[in-house]
C-alpha cells in the first residue's frame, strides 16, 4: 500500500478534464502539493484558483510547458522540486487529438509519456522522493487495449503507453528503483478531449464509423477516472494495467506474459 499523504505530484495535461480532476482528487486524498503542466495558461489558472480556494494557498502551481519538448518537460520537474522540495508521483496525462496530424499525436501521447516516465524513474523521484520510492501513472485508454478502428493513430499511441508501462514497470526496474509504473486505461470519459470534429478523423468513413460506435455509449465523468487513479496508486503493483470505465471501481487487466526464453 502506497501512502499518498504528504506527497507531491506532477500532472501533465492538468488544465482540464481528467488531469484537473486528478489534481483535485490528489489534494482531497491528502497530498501536500500538486503541479500542473499544460500549454494553456488561461484554463490552467482557473484550475489553480479553484484548487486554492478549496485547499488553501501553496497547494497547487501551474507550469507552462509542452510535453513534446524534452527541455520544457525537464524544467517542469525542476520547478516542481523548486516549489515543493520533493516529487513522489508523476501522472502522464497530456493528450493531443486530430488523426491527420499523427506526428503530433505520437509526440504528445506516446513520446511525452516516455519522456515523463524516464525523467521520473531515472532522474527525479530517486533524488527527490519524500520517502523511499514513488509512483508513475500513465493514462492510457481502453482503445489501447482493444483497438478502436475509427482512431487508429490514437489507438497506436495509447497501446504504446501500455507497452512502455509493462516494460518499465517490470520486477527488474521496480526492484532497482522502488518506483511503481502503472497504466490506467480510461473508458469513454466526458472531457474536452472527446473527438467531435470531422477534421479530427482521417476521412468520412472513419468519422461515420466513430458516430456509429458512440451512439449507444454514455461517458463517465472525469472524476470517475481520478478516483480510480488514487485507488491504483495505493493498491496497484508495478507494471499492472487497470481499466477505469462506466464509473465503476477500477480493475486490473491480466495480459499474457511470455517466458524469457520465448521472447
Following the backbone from N to C, one meets helices and strands in this order, namely EHEHEHEHEHHHEEHEHEE
How much of the sequence lies in strands comes to: 15-25%
Poorly predicted ranges (pLDDT <50, ≥5 residues)?
Answer: none
The CATH topology corresponds to Rossmann fold
Biggest sheet record: 8 strands, mixed
Beta strand count: 10
The side-by-side strand order for the widest beta sheet comes to 3-2-1-4-5-6-9-10
How far from one another are the termini?
31 Å
Helices, by number, come to: 9
Q: Helix share of residues? A: 40-55%
Shape: globular
Task: Work out the radius of gyration.
Answer: 17 Å
Number of domains: 1
Give the overall average pLDDT.
Answer: 94
CATH class: Alpha Beta
Task: Spell out the CATH superfamily.
Answer: NAD(P)-binding Rossmann-like Domain
How would you classify the quaternary structure?
single chain
Structural class: alpha/beta
CATH architectural arrangement:
3-Layer(aba) Sandwich
